[in-house]
C-alpha cells in the first residue's frame, strides 16, 4: 500500500507542477500580449497561437491531479475526509474549477471576440482581466498547497 501511496503522491505533485506552471506561462503570455498591444497597437498572432495550446496541457495536469487525488483518498481509506483542512481544500478546489470554467472561459471568449472584431477596448480589458484571473487561480493554488502540507485541524 505504501508504494501505491508514493506513486499517487508523485503523480499528484507532477500534475500540480504541470497545471500551476502552465497557469504561470499563461499569465506571462497575457501580460506580454497586453504590453505589445499597448506599445504597437497590433495583436501578436504568435502569442494568440501559443495561448491556444495551453488548455490541452492544463487538462493533462488537472486530470493527473484529480485522478491521483482520488487515488490518494482511496489508498488512505478516506482518513482525511473528516478533517477540516481537507474539507476546506475540497471547497477551494471546487471554487478553482468553477472559476476556471465560468470566468476563464468567458474571458477567453471575450479576447477572441476582441481579436475578431479588432475592438481595442474589449481586447485590452479581456487581456487584463485574464491576468487577474490567472493570479486568482495561482493564489488559490497556494492556499490549497499550504492546507495540504500543514494539514491544520
Ligand atoms: C488543485 C488541486 C490540488 C492541489 C494543489 C493539491 C495539493 C496537494 C499537495 C501539495 C499534497 C501533498 C501534501 C503532503 O504529502 O505533505 C496533497 C496531498 C493530498 N491530496 Fe491533494 N491537491 C489537489 C487536489 C486533490 C484532490 C482533488 C484530492 C482528492 C479527491 C486530493 C487528495 C489528497 C490527499 C488525500 C492527500 C494526502 C496524501 C498524504 O499526505 O498521505 N488532492 N495535495
Q: Would you give an account of this structure?
A:
This protein has 153 residues and is mainly alpha-helical. It has one domain. The protein has four helices and no strands. The radius of gyration is 18 Å and the shape is elongated. The protein starts with a helix and ends with a helix. The mean pLDDT is 96. Bound molecules: protoporphyrin IX containing FE.
What attributes does this structure have?
single chain, 153 residues, mainly alpha, binds protoporphyrin IX containing FE
N-to-C span:
25 Å
Q: Which sequence of SSEs, written as H and E, runs from N to C?
A: HHHH
Roughly how many Å is the radius of gyration?
A: 18 Å
Low-confidence stretches: none
**Number of DSSP strand runs:** 0
Helix content: over 70%
Bound molecules: protoporphyrin IX containing FE
Average pLDDT metric: 96
> Beta-strand level of the residues, as a percent range?
under 5%
- Return the structural class: mainly alpha
Structure summarized in a few sentences:
It contains 4 helices and no strands.
